[in-house]
Each structure stands twice: as C-alpha cells, then as structure tokens.
C-alpha cells in the first residue's frame, strides 16, 4: 500500500462513516425495542447501567469489589428513566466511568427481520484483559445473576465475557455460546460485524476501515491515529477479515448441523452461506463487507442493511444461478419461519409492524399467494407426513452442504480449525441424528413443529406389512392412498417405537386396528403400548458423544401379533402338555418363539429395532446380542427385559426366553471359549466365540450335529449344553465326562447295533456304529483291535513329541435306565496289556494323495503293484496267516497319515479302510 493511498481518505469521510454507523446502530436499536414488551424494553435499556454500577438495590449485585464501569459511557435519558423505574433514587456516582468493562454489544437476530418476541439476547461483554482471575469470577457471577433477573422479566439473556486479545488470536474460549467453540473464528467475526448492535463503551474500529484496507487494517488505523482523525481509546479492535481460511468451513458446517437439530431453518441459512463462501475460494467476499460498503456509501436504511436479508440475498443469487428453484424456495421458507411472523394470521399489533411490511413485500416479490402463506402458517398443525417431507428436504440440503464443505476442507485444509474432541462429539451427534439405516427410529420433527401428538392413529396390516396412518382411516371403506401412510414395516414394534419417539403416541391417543380379523388382539396391543410407552430412554450428554455408541437397554418383544398356536386357537383349542419348554413344546417339540423384536437404546440416544423371525429367531437374536461380548468385561451387559403378550402361553414363552438369555449371556462372560449348544424344536444350534466373533452353527438332524461335534480343535473344547438340550440323548452324559488330555471310549448297545463314541484329548467327539455281533453282553470283540490301534498311535506320537507318559484311556458303558428314557453310565475295566497284542500286524500308510499302502507282518501291498486286487490280496494273505483260517473281520493295528496327529481323522480313515477290507472279504466269500 502506498503512502498516497493511505492518505487519500479525507477527514470528513471518516466523520461521515462514524455518523453513518451510529445512525444505523440507533435504527437497529429502535427496531429491536419496538418488538419488545415494556418489561423487556426495560431490560434492554438498563443493562448497560446494571453493569456500569455496583449497587445493592440493583439486580446482579454481588459486592462493591465486583468489576464495573464501562469506558466512555454516558447513559442516555431513556436509560436513566428506566433506571429510576427499576430502582427509584439510585444515582450514578461521580467517577463511576472507570474502565473494567470496555464495551457491550448485542449480536444475532436483534434488530433484524428475524427478531421475534421469543428471540433471546446474546451479549458480548469485552473486559479489561488485566483483570485478575478472582475479579473475572466475580464479574461472571454478576452476569449470571443478571441472566436470571432478565428471565424473570420474560427475556432470555446470555452474556459472554470476551478477552479480545485471545479472540483475535482465534482462542475464543470466552465466547462459548451459540456458534462458538474451537470450530471457527473469522466466520463468527463476520456474523458479529453484520449483525451486532453497539450498546455502550468503545465502538468496533472495523467500521472506519474501508474494505480495500482490510489486509492492512493495523497500518491504516495507525495512520488515522497519527493524523488525529480518531481517538483510539474510543474504539476496540475485534480483528479484520481480509479473508476466511478454508479450515474454518468444516467446523462451521459441523456446528450448524448440530444446531439444526433444534432450529433447522436458522442453521440451514448459515450453512448455505458457509457453502457459498467455500465456493468462492480463494477470493471470498465476506457478507459483512457488503454491509460496510453500503453504510460507507451512505445507505443506512434498515431494510437494505438487515443482516438476514443480506444473507438470503447472497445465497439465493447463487442458488438461482445453479438452477435449482426448489432449493431457493427452501431457503426462503427458512427465512420466513425464522421470522416467526405468520402473515395470514396477523394480530392487530403485528399489522402495523415494520417487519410485517418488509416480509409482505418479500413474499409478493417471491410470488407467494395467500393460499401458500396459509399453508406455511399452518406449520404447527402440519400432518406428520408433511413434516416428514419437510424434514427430508431440510436434512438433504444440510447434509449436501456439509458433504460439499467436507470435501472442500479435505482438499484445501488438511488441518482443521476444530479440536479432536469437538470433531468427535459433533460428528457422533450428527451421525446419531441424521444416519438412517433399516430399523433406526428417526426423529422426523427436528424443530419443525411444536408437537406431532395425534388423537387417533390407524394401524393396518396389509400382506404381513404393518402400516402406520395418522388419523382415523378405514382401509376397507375409505380410499387408502400412499400419502396416507406415514411409515410401514414388518415390525409393529418398530412403528410403535417410531410413534413414541416422535410424540405421535400420547396417553390419550386412540388406536384403530385393521383388519378386524387381526392376529393382534386389542388386549395384546394395549400391553405392547404399555411396554413401549414405559421405555425410559437415556438422555445423552457431551461426554457420551466422546465415546463409541454402545447399547444401554435391550427390550425383547416376543411374538408381537403372532399366535404360535394359531392353528388351534382358531378352533378354540390349545394344546396342553407336561412338556412346557417353549422351545420344544409337547411331544411334537413345537417351537413357540416365532418372532423377536429387539429394541436397542444406546448412549447416543438412538433407538434401533431389529426383527428376527422363524424357528431360529431366538438364536439369531442371541448372536446379535453376543457381538457386544468384547466390551462386557469393562461395561457389563446392558439392562434387558423380555416381554410377551401373545395369545398362547405368553408367560411360559417369556420365562423360557428370559432363562435362555440369562444362561447364555452369563455363560459367555464366565467361559467365553466354551461353545453353547441349544436345541429348538428338532434342530440343534451351536454358538461359538471365534476370532471373527460369535458364530452360529445349525444342524437340522442328529447326524449333522455329530458332524459338527467332530470338527478338529486347536485346544480343549468344553461344550456347555442348555438345560433342555439333548434330553434322552447319551451326549449329555458323554460331555459331562469330558476332560482334557484323555482318550475316552463310550459304547451303547441297542437292537443289535453298537453305538460307539470317542472323546479325544481336546473334547472332540467321534461317533461310529456297526452291527453288534456278540450275543454275550459282556463280550466286546471290537475293543481289543481298537485298543491295539490306539496304543500303537500313542506310542509313535509319544516318541515324536518327546512325551514321557502314555495317554490315559478310559472305557464307559451307556445304558438306558429301567422304565425311563434317561441314560446312566458305568466305568468298565480295560483288558490287560498282554491281551492287547496280536500275532498279525496289519497297518496302513497314506501318502499326500490319500493313496494307501498296506503292510501285513512287513509284507507290502501297494496300488501300483496290485491295482484293483490290492484289498483281495491283503485278505488272502491275512487268512493264510490265521491259525484258525477264520473269516472274522480284519482290523488295522496302525495307520500313518502325512503330517497328521489328529486321532479323530485316524479313526475315520481306519473305519473307511476296514470297510473296504470287509467288502473285499465278503466278495471273496
């Protein structure tokens, strides 16, 4: 900047700018007062005096040592009159013009078209930066007392203490109110300059600095001071806005989305402005420059300089250029609703208001007709469908703007102007509010309407889908249109939770149920409504959003609108049985748990409904709950409740589900590596905690269950059985004897068959069966060959692994109890070692291609030499070696597999090879 340019401002020009600022400021202050009630006007008038003085008769008094005195302050006649009205006789002592307080400023919607009767007052109090902490604490206490007093007068007041040096450096910790925090600085300053009303003390020096000198504000100001055109003690430096750094945009976007949860229309306007600024980058023209330029040019009329009209004008220009009229209309609706001035419902005092004239002119320019205004003014009574549609438009625009700002910031500002904690907390709050996923209960009314309460609600079941219809509609006689339906879902619970969370459902709400022949009875609906209405959702705070989302409550609603015995209930009958297990009811082993609606409430205040249906619904629900197992050690399980009000056996169903939840959740905390086996109807379900989380294995036949139980294991497995699982099955007793490190043999004889079970050292179970050829109940012809085989394998593995002791083998017999289906077990003695030897050694060796080579007393039989005659050749050799030349079955005494020490695999292959030998023996006759 050259010297000539710095001296080109005429002295009279600076005086004129100052005068223009004062006139606009007074016009805004007068406009603000005109919209306040008399008691509220009193608050506005006396606020500077209450902070200027310490007097025991005045509101906010703490003590005489409290920081006070506003620099350069001379009260107006109006302010003095208001002081006497508040506390007659209180005088301003001489010398009270001290200087602990540098200036007072109102900002926001005050004095603008957006100011309504309910608007609050946000006041910045700039204080002497040398005040000690104790004095600041006293001043803060006084401000809090003044806020309470103002509330008693019917006005919401917020006073923010400002340290200007910190503020200019971007450390706006002292401005922790609306639109503040660690997220933005110059955007906040831009809003301050375009909306602030100066109340008392020093004025912002920014008003005397031309836009073209913003980048050299300090030098330009020093020039004015050197030339005695300004008195620096009358002015304060809030900082210049030469440009807005891109790092602020993402923080501002997060804040505005967060504020949009309660005031979406105001936030939308500010978010669109921030997006507009980002689209101008790197040549950004702050909106406050438009205001200052107009004022410097002598335009000091209220309407052209209205902070919100300036904002709307700028963003609608861009939206119109982008060719999206719907977005333009949404922005205009946002301003209209922010103004809170229903033009079709004006009261007598509102008709003569300056705001009314301005807003009517705007609506005329926009082409809005009376019918459209009436529809907008009916917003408090909009239907839930209309509110949901408006919510979708708002959220879509806000999220679109946020995504634009996020992409912009990633490109231009890798380091954000937002703390990690703010980013985490705000991001999580927005995710909780705006994320929409199946089953998530969405708030469709983020500050759009004061209430969605419905006197009547219709629930209609259409082809297994429930429909929620506000009002009373008969789908049979009335013409049901798609726009009548607010929400639909297979889960009635989801609809009722939606109605509860959004306030549609009240104690007085009447519900019509269609069709009349409905699986959901009026009694069951009443009970479910009580459950849903009785849910007490957690109220999240800032700390909750610094943590990951985690469930706090589970509500399981079983068989909602489902009668598990409907085929009997329709005939007026219900099955009665001594077998009262709801997962295997009666001799037919019916599963009475057919659907579960799981309602989850988490620490972010989210509601989620998952629906599980079918015979395995309880197991899939358990698997879903168990995904939270890793956090249970620190946090414990969420609180949970089971509810069931269906037409058949509701109490028994609820009790059984509670029982299963208690057992399973407790089990996986105490024994997280132990699989849990449940039996439902005629299916078996195995819950296993693996590295990938809790997995569910399903076996729909006993043989498939045995296949699951014989899978290899890396370490010892201790299966845990549900209290009703595998009743009348030998597996209950077998698993009760499972011990690590042992080989255990179990056998059961029945109807000429021998059922053999083998538990290995890791708890893996092998089942085999074969004809029981012995008529002697004490004879076990299969045992000695098996023991020889096991001993041979164990001795070889003992040498390979350097194990000092042979593995212990135990033998058990299983038998049915007399007159019972229950089993009993008895330990049996193993034959002596001498009896376990044999004169014929028959062993097999498999290569990596699973080809077998057999050895009979050292003689080799391989496939490439014998081909298809391999097994017959072995049979002939063995029979020749037998002294009796008997034709009894052959048994392998040893088996070697490549790189395999799994006994279960060896036993499986042993049986397969012995079966082939038996077939060859049978063929040989």
From TrEMBL:
<dbReference type="InterPro" id="IPR024685">
    <property type="entry name" value="Adenylate_cyclase_1_N"/>
</dbReference>
<feature type="domain" description="Adenylate cyclase class-I N-terminal">
    <location>
        <begin position="16"/>
        <end position="207"/>
    </location>
</feature>
<dbReference type="InterPro" id="IPR000274">
    <property type="entry name" value="Adenylate_cyclase_1"/>
</dbReference>
<dbReference type="GO" id="GO:0006171">
    <property type="term" value="P:cAMP biosynthetic process"/>
</dbReference>
<dbReference type="Pfam" id="PF01295">
    <property type="entry name" value="Adenylate_cycl"/>
</dbReference>
<protein>
    <recommendedName>
        <fullName>Adenylate cyclase class-I N-terminal domain-containing protein</fullName>
    </recommendedName>
</protein>
<dbReference type="Pfam" id="PF12633">
    <property type="entry name" value="Adenyl_cycl_N"/>
</dbReference>
<dbReference type="GO" id="GO:0004016">
    <property type="term" value="F:adenylate cyclase activity"/>
</dbReference>
